[in-house]
Amino acid sequence: MLTWPDLTSRPRDTPDATIAYGPDPLQVIDLWRPAGAGPHPVVLMVHGGCWQTSIADRRLMDWVAADLREHGIAAWNIDYRGVDRAGGGYPGTFRDVAAAADRLRSDAAAHGLDLTRRVALGHSAGGHLALWLAARHRIAADSPLHDPDPLRLDHVVCLGGLPDLAAVAANPDNGCGTAVIAQLTDQSRAAPYADTSVPPLLPLRTVQDLVNGREDRIVPYRFAEDYVARARAAGDAIRLHTIVDTGHVELIAPGTPAWAHARSLVRSALIRETA
Fold first, then answer.
1. What's the predicted TM-score (pTM) here?
2. Quick one: which of 85, 83, 76, 79 has its CA closest to 59?
3. Using a CB cutoff of 8 Å and minimum separation of 24, what contacts does 257-260 make?
């Protein structure tokens, strides 16, 4: 299995632009844009790191963002304040992610990006956030996270994600632990997961592809199996792609079968946009 240093020690390319959507240094988006006038197909990208900035920020996705750019796909790689940063946690982390996503809608034309179909890609905790973005239209009006006109997503590719926050909180064998969930949710609410976890918001009415390594020791494989079963029972179009001999890092490491498969899913979703 690959380790994080196996990925982060690789040469790193740079984005084409960095766009601020708020005053905090973490309220930024890196745009990785292919050469040419466009419009270019674009994927909304959300990094993981157990929802904690001290563990990871958007730069963890630099290698796959560069790889997508080389294959003619732009990456809208967002950052956000984790639960360990002032303004992060509930509701700030979610509001950041939502604001960065909505900025894609308002800025796409200026950057030559094609939003005919809207596709998101998230890894680990970012997989949860990518699915949550697709679920925003289902959040009740009495929630601080409600938005009457969120960016709608047509397709989400979730790599080793943690969609069910209640399951994370109840299972200490996951790599993020359990304590972080109390920081990410409002435990004073009668239903603290109703507007933050994905299963209570089903059905999303969004195509979902989950890509998981069978040997992932950070996100146990059963998390994907359980979520897929619930989403399918709710009527959503969802598929689970199992990659053998694969852990967690391989999912965002160019050159691995896992990333090749994920990139193929993204490309197929975007091709449907213009078909």
1. 0.97
2. 79
3. 258/159, 258/211, 258/213, 259/64, 259/67
